[in-house]
Design a protein that fits this description.
alpha/beta; 8 helices; Rossmann fold
Length: 274
């Protein structure tokens, strides 16, 4: 994958999947700008880039704020760069039974996961239209919840399902009026870094022992017998960003070790204690 001469913007690049995307894109040769709201996490991302002999630039951003999007895009243009790749990674989740969800929960997830991505696509289309023959690539980080239902993730599924639909509609529009903008979504399975424990949300939902059982049952439900690592997602994103994926648009790319083709952990006896 060769991204030499391309400028990439990654939202939520201060940790986890976003950081993995930053590292993968920079390793492939892209000039990477990443945004977020965690200054300490941004410093860690910059340190990991430096350890690889790579560079990047951090800009603070609230993806739900149109003004912040305008400021980031203006800053990129002021550096003489033309945006080639946008990775809408910034996202949030909340695990709650449907009866315990509030409208505030739903609005929060929709604001960050859908509104933020919509604003990014809108601004990226405008930036990429300045040189339409050069095209561009937008990658939205969705989730398996955007493709099928899972218990206790109603609001999350609503948001990621909306993001999946947004991806497909934007992909169709991205090839109109002389534009050559590809838009795809990536749907990770359960992704852990080495040594990670179950998420606070899983512990709150299942209890300490139940959360550990959830992880074991999840692994058992994955045909490949392993949980994903952020770098797995980063490599797929770098491929979709590159010209190697020139004929790929409107795709929902599942990266889950085959879990989508198999059973969910809840089918293996793990139940919420609520």
């Amino acid at each position: 994958m060769d991204l030499q001469g391309k400028c990439a913007l990654v939202t939520g690049g201060t940790a986890g999947l976003g950081r993995a995307c930053v590292l993968a894109l920079a390793t492939a040769g892209a000039q990477v700008v990443f945004t977020g709201r965690n200054e300490a996490g941004a410093a860690e991302t910059m340190a990991e880039l430096a350890a690889l002999g790579l560079g990047g630039e951090y800009m603070p951003q609230d993806v739900t704020d149109p003004g912040d999007w305008g400021r980031v895009m203006a800053a990129i243009a002021a550096r003489g760069l033309r945006l080639d790749v946008l990775v809408n990674n910034a996202g949030v989740s909340r695990l709650k039974p449907i009866g315990q969800l509030t409208l505030q929960d739903v609005r929060f997830l929709l604001d960050v996961n859908v509104r933020g991505a919509f604003l990014g696509i809108q601004h990226a289309f405008a930036a990429m239209a300045r040189d339409p023959g050069r095209g561009g690539s937008i990658v939205n980080i969705a989730a398996l919840a955007g493709l099928r239902g899972t218990p206790n993730s109603t609001a999350y599924a609503l948001a990621k399902g909306g993001l999946t639909g947004l991806t497909r509609a934007a992909a169709a529009e991205g090839q109109r009026d002389g534009r050559q903008i590809r838009v795809n979504s990536v749907h990770p399975g359960v992704v852990f870094k080495e040594g990670d424990r179950p998420s606070p949300g899983a512990i709150a939902l299942y209890g300490e022992e139940g959360a550990e059982a959830f992880v074991k049952a999840t692994i058992a439900a994955v045909p490949m017998g392993r949980l994903g690592h952020p770098r797995d997602i980063g490599q797929v994103v770098a491929f979709l960003a590159s010209d190697d994926a020139a004929d790929v648009t409107g795709a929902a790319v599942v990266v889950d070790g085959g879990r989508f083709a198999g059973e969910f952990a809840t089918h293996h006896g793990v139940r919420s204690r609520r």
